[in-house]
Amino acid sequence: MTKVIIIGSGNVAQHLIAAFQNSQKMGAEIELVQVFSRQIESVSHLLDLSQITNDLNTLIEADLYIIAISDDAIAAISSQLPFKNRLVVHTSGSVPLNVLDDNNRKGVFYPLQTFTKNKPVDFRTIPICLESENATDYQLLDKVAKSISDKIFAINSEQRKALHVAAVFVNNFTNHLYQIGQEICQEHQVPFEILNPLITETAQKIMLLSPSEAQTGPAKRNDTATIEAHEAFLSKENHLAIYKTLTQSIQHNGKKL
């Protein structure tokens, strides 16, 4: 049985806890033996209290320690671990492997998904990007990852940085555009839910087409009259600035600006 400890209690940590618990129920040879949380009550609804600690010095021996905390705290926490030569990984998309303390063997266990508190996800569909310093540790990470997901990728730190930047564009920035769309609808008493089928179809199209092939709209058609009308309509300066920037980007796609 491969023993796993999770260090952290935020969104990623809680979803990992649920994923490992589900895999155990399905007979996987992976056991979540302990969770570290500064506030025990943060995860007490997920685990028996005997499995939770708020003291790093009481961490028990395990095959894998997964640090699932904010990016800025990873280096500090890894340096405080009271043991040596064990496999310690983090779950960040933007932090390189080498920020982990040299006292232990290093790796990355990065689930590429947006996680929201109390919103369940199907972890089997989530890509997990793995990195390690040696082949033996990678094999262990691969085994653990496959117990909760069907999509495993070997991704180095530089590739992971590129993935994380791309993820910010397709997720965080896109969600912000949803917010702008909602604000425009609310300002003019239009139900935002009218846009839901369009949002769904837009996301589904790129499963079949490349984003460049799926691109439509006035900027793609170079419909100057419509673009000018939209710009005149937008009353908020930041909305107008974003509209102009994205329109120019679409119009000059593949060309030098």
UniProtKB/TrEMBL annotation:
Q: Which InterPro entries match?
A: 6-PGluconate_DH-like_C_sf, DUF2520, NAD(P)-bd_dom_sf, P5C_Rdtase_cat_N, TM1727-like_C_sf
Q: Which residues form the DUF2520 domain?
A: 126-250
Residue ranges of domain Pyrroline-5-carboxylate reductase catalytic N-terminal in the record: 3-90
Q: Write down the Pfam families for this protein, in alphabetical order.
A: DUF2520, F420_oxidored
Which PANTHER family does UniProt cross-reference here? Answer: CONSERVED HYPOTHETICAL ALANINE AND LEUCINE RICH PROTEIN
* Protein's name according to its UniProt entry: DUF2520 domain-containing protein
